[in-house]
Amino acid sequence: MTTPVLTTHLLTKRYGTQSALTEATLDIPAGRIVGLVGPNGAGKSTLLALAAGLVRPTSGTIEVLGRRPAADAAQLARVGFVAQDTPVYAGLSVADHLTLGEKLNPHWDKQLARQRVEQVGLDPKKKAGRLSGGQKAQLALTLAAAKRPELLVFDEPVAALDPLARRAFLQNLMEFVADMDVSVILSSHLLGDVERVCDHLVVLAESRVQVAGDIDDLTGAHHRVVGPRGTLDALPEGVDVIAADHTDRQTTLIVHNTTGRPLDLPGAETVGLEDMVLTYLHRAEGIGVPTLQETRS
């Protein structure tokens, strides 16, 4: 049986009295490209920092690839982590970064690193501080991938990139995943990017996990149901109401069908990824069913 890439149980991280992550329980299979989505302050960066071993939990447990994060040098080598703003050393050249990567990582793939630099058109002699945002992101991706890790972790890697650079970065990421047989956790607030490259989803809001699972399973199990007021008060067991909106004549529900069977309700239609995610975010903020205009804004 394949070891899950990330397992947490009631994982909590507090900074003083402020809770950055609260009782997160997750079980993410290996081999997935995981989209970690939610608003600013939801706990995305905290969860990724915990997974990378940069911070310790306040309570609860976390395992990455079956072991405690950053337990030793061998465990560190299994994870490639790229923090926000794709940090590189401004005073070092591209070639210097590759040399440093080779010295620090026992499984460094020198050929892969050189091929990647050539493929994306990076000048080995150029200082990192003089690279564009897209070039810095490509350099950071190269450094993380050339470690030959089992898990790549990216914290908002494309947030500051223009659309062309973002597209190139995500395309290269998908190529890496196909070639390297690696799992990926990617945090983003850009749902279009998540829908394009990810096959597993974790939604965070108000420091808590709202929903998690394979994207096809989740979107197939979430429905919008519309009916006359009073006709949707009693739902089948295993059909959970995520959000509700009532007018004098009509009720609109977003429901999660956890039964594993087709939803037998008149007028039920599946919702897309964006509508589903926004519904959970609205619920976390105490807002009802998002309107069509809201889900498209």
Automatic annotation (TrEMBL):
<protein>
    <submittedName>
        <fullName>ABC-2 type transport system ATP-binding protein</fullName>
    </submittedName>
</protein>
<dbReference type="GO" id="GO:0016887">
    <property type="term" value="F:ATP hydrolysis activity"/>
</dbReference>
<dbReference type="InterPro" id="IPR003439">
    <property type="entry name" value="ABC_transporter-like_ATP-bd"/>
</dbReference>
<dbReference type="InterPro" id="IPR027417">
    <property type="entry name" value="P-loop_NTPase"/>
</dbReference>
<dbReference type="InterPro" id="IPR051782">
    <property type="entry name" value="ABC_Transporter_VariousFunc"/>
</dbReference>
<dbReference type="GO" id="GO:0005524">
    <property type="term" value="F:ATP binding"/>
</dbReference>
<keyword id="KW-0813">Transport</keyword>
<feature type="domain" description="ABC transporter">
    <location>
        <begin position="6"/>
        <end position="231"/>
    </location>
</feature>
<dbReference type="Pfam" id="PF00005">
    <property type="entry name" value="ABC_tran"/>
</dbReference>
<keyword id="KW-0547">Nucleotide-binding</keyword>
<keyword id="KW-0067">ATP-binding</keyword>
<dbReference type="InterPro" id="IPR003593">
    <property type="entry name" value="AAA+_ATPase"/>
</dbReference>
